[in-house]
What we know:
Elements: E1 2-10, H1 13-44, H2 50-55, H3 57-63, H4 72-90, E2 111-114, E3 119-121, E4 124-127, E5 131-135, E6 144-153, E7 156-164, E8 178-183, E9 187-191, E10 196-198, H5 202-205, H6 207-219, H7 225-259, E11 262-266, H8 270-273, H9 288-301, H10 303-317, E12 320-324, E13 349-351, E14 358-360, H11 361-382
Parallel strand pairs: 8-11, 11-12
Antiparallel strand pairs: 1-5, 1-7, 2-6, 3-4, 4-5, 6-7, 8-9, 9-10, 13-14
Helix pairs in contact: 1-4, 6-7, 7-10
Amino acid sequence: MIKTYKYKLRLSKSQSQRLVQWLGATRYLYNVALETKIEAYRKLGKNVTRFDLQKELPEIKRYLPWMKDVNAQSLQCVLKRLDEAYKSFFRGGGFPRFAKKDNGVARRWRSIEFPQNVALENNKIWLPKIGYVNYYKSRDFNGIIKTTKITKEIDGWYISLSCDCEQNLSFPVSENQVIGLDMGVAHFLTTSDGEMIDNPKWFQSYSRNLRLLQRSVARKQKGGGNRKKEVYKLGKIHSKIKRKRSDHNHKLSTRIVRENSLIAVEDLKLKNMTRSAKGTVENPGTMVKQKSGLNRSMLDLGAGSFFSMLEYKAQYCGRDLVKVDPKYTSQTCHQCNHRSKENRKTPSQFACVKCGHTSNADYNAAVNILQAGRSVLLSANVEGCPRASGKNL
């Protein structure tokens, strides 16, 4: 399987300056290539492919000698990136935009790719045309490097090494250790074992600082040095929120995967759930302010990244992750299977109108998710699914 290791680089001043120049060169190439494609289609009705653009790279280097300093394969990756942006547009995404410089918060262009010729030697990383660079070894590396990406973030340069590695089956676990997970806003997570994990509310805890800094930025003159300083402070806070959220989700997902052989979660459509309720001029939405606050709270959870972590860690450790239909999990009694809207008395209280069973609403939903996950996995066993074979649940 493919796994990515991310480390912070310890660059010398000359290495850092060179990467900044490379970042500017690749951004320039992306914009020129995009303009070429737009003009060719507008004037000639012709589509210029990625391979047509690659053939022009030697000519570009002849007229722009400073472009020769950039790794040749990194330049090819820029054109590949533009081609992928066009493919996304034809699948229904937005039209590719011209790349802008990094301003500390809205970072449009901040990465350089190395498809090969990167190696770890003697606790250093070898980069083409850069040489050996130091890095903070935050964890051991294991695997064969496939692709590499260097990213400029608010506090320095980071390297992401995507590698091909084997499964880690060193965490034995009983077949009876199974769990269902229900995500919410009041609690980050409620498990079928009855554990309730508090919502850290990272964004809310820094909301006052963000509000004051945003006001300070708005008062500063655009392009001025004081504005850049305030933008940098604002970017640092956003970076801190992002890392705290990521650290929390990583630790929690690792614990869940290590302790359970089956993990059942809801197959949530997060994009639809966090869609704005504003509506249109003809059909204005209702309770827009309340929905906006709910969307903000849901996005602060980082549910999408948490589910992604669970998925790849379950695959890495040989666990079964089952996604179930989220319909009616909060309205169905896990004791008698009676389904009714009236069962959900309040957001936190569940009381079955048929059998009288009462419990926490999120806990009841987590148990229903686990039961649905067992059924899905059992059906897969009967049909001979290779990944679920041998599981007797």
